[in-house]
From TrEMBL:
<feature type="domain" description="Calcineurin-like phosphoesterase">
    <location>
        <begin position="2"/>
        <end position="164"/>
    </location>
</feature>
<protein>
    <recommendedName>
        <fullName>bis(5'-nucleosyl)-tetraphosphatase (symmetrical)</fullName>
        <ecNumber>3.6.1.41</ecNumber>
    </recommendedName>
</protein>
<dbReference type="InterPro" id="IPR004843">
    <property type="entry name" value="Calcineurin-like_PHP"/>
</dbReference>
<comment type="similarity">
    <text>Belongs to the Ap4A hydrolase family.</text>
</comment>
<comment type="function">
    <text>Hydrolyzes diadenosine 5',5'''-P1,P4-tetraphosphate to yield ADP.</text>
</comment>
<dbReference type="InterPro" id="IPR029052">
    <property type="entry name" value="Metallo-depent_PP-like"/>
</dbReference>
<dbReference type="GO" id="GO:0008803">
    <property type="term" value="F:bis(5'-nucleosyl)-tetraphosphatase (symmetrical) activity"/>
</dbReference>
<dbReference type="InterPro" id="IPR004617">
    <property type="entry name" value="ApaH"/>
</dbReference>
<keyword id="KW-0378">Hydrolase</keyword>
<dbReference type="Pfam" id="PF00149">
    <property type="entry name" value="Metallophos"/>
</dbReference>
Length: 274
């Protein structure tokens, strides 16, 4: 029995299947952790959704910002962008089943000392807290008012967590931290302007993993392809898994038991911003 964590698939179905073959992945005995952003940018988001859903309980998947983008476009009145590759999902005969599956995913998956989120973990949040906050968002996503939640989701405010936040501001902040975070300041304020490599940090900001924590979890995240799987000067135990498959990089799997990384090269470059 093995557990593998795989970085942002981004619609790269051929590479996804090749990687599973290289891992000799067997859903009857193995477990697959997917770090979010299953869809968009790559050539076959529909096949990626079908593949993940087909694997059933063998898959633990968290939502990424591109997964939310699909849900907002499909069920929250949002519009697709020029570079999106989601039309096939929206026109698929099984779209409702696939969207239901995606919409029921959490924002955090935890097992023992391991924690997986799409973008990372705010240093001010403990493991129990992030699980609780993930459950709050999941309840909003699967509740009767989920359409209203998706329609109000987008926005950059509040940009700093406060335990007193409530309502939509609280939920939006949680989603932004767990699916969009890259650079923060010492107080945990998020920057939404920089999305490139380490040298693009605004003054007073640094990558979230360069801030210390009071506990010592094993953190898994994706989202930040420009890091190319590296986390220099990290002050927490962390594994960056987005290695830019959709941009001609690679799709990466991490064996949680051994720490081994297995990669397959991306087959084409999407040629769009990461």
């Amino acid at each position: 029995m093995s557990t593998y964590a795989i970085g942002d698939v981004h619609g790269c179905h051929a590479e996804f299947v090749t990687l599973l073959e290289q891992l000799s992945f067997d859903p009857r005995r193995d477990t697959l952790w997917l770090v979010g952003d299953l869809v968009n940018r790559g050539p076959d988001s529909l096949a990626c959704l079908r593949e993940a859903e087909r694997l059933g309980s063998a898959v633990q998947c968290v939502l990424g910002n591109h997964d939310f983008h699909l849900l907002v476009a499909a069920r929250g009145g949002g519009k697709l962008k020029k570079n999106d590759s989601l039309k096939a999902v929206l026109e698929a005969p099984d779209r409702e089943r696939l969207l239901d599956w995606l919409q029921s995913r959490p924002l955090a998956v935890r097992h023992d000392a391991w924690l997986m989120t799409h973008a990372g973990l705010l240093p001010q949040w403990g493991l129990d807290q992030v699980e609780t906050l993930s459950q709050e968002v999941q309840a909003a996503l699967t509740g009767e008012q989920s359409g209203d939640f998706l329609r109000q989701l987008y926005g950059n405010h509040p940009d700093r967590w406060d335990d007193a936040l409530d309502g939509m501001e609280r939920l939006r902040c949680v989603v932004n931290v767990l699916t969009r975070m890259r650079f923060i300041d010492a107080e945990g304020r998020l920057d939404f302007t920089a999305n490139k490599g380490m040298d693009s940090a605004p003054a007073g900001f640094a990558p979230w993993f360069q801030f210390p924590r009071d506990d010592d979890p094993q953190l898994l995240f994706g989202h930040w392809a420009a890091l190319e799987g590296r986390t220099p000067d990290a002050r927490v135990r962390v594994n960056a898994l987005d290695t830019g498959c959709a941009w001609g990089g690679a799709l990466t799997a991490l064996d949680l038991a051994t720490g081994e990384r297995i990669r397959v090269p991306g087959r084409a470059s999407a040629g769009v911003a990461r």
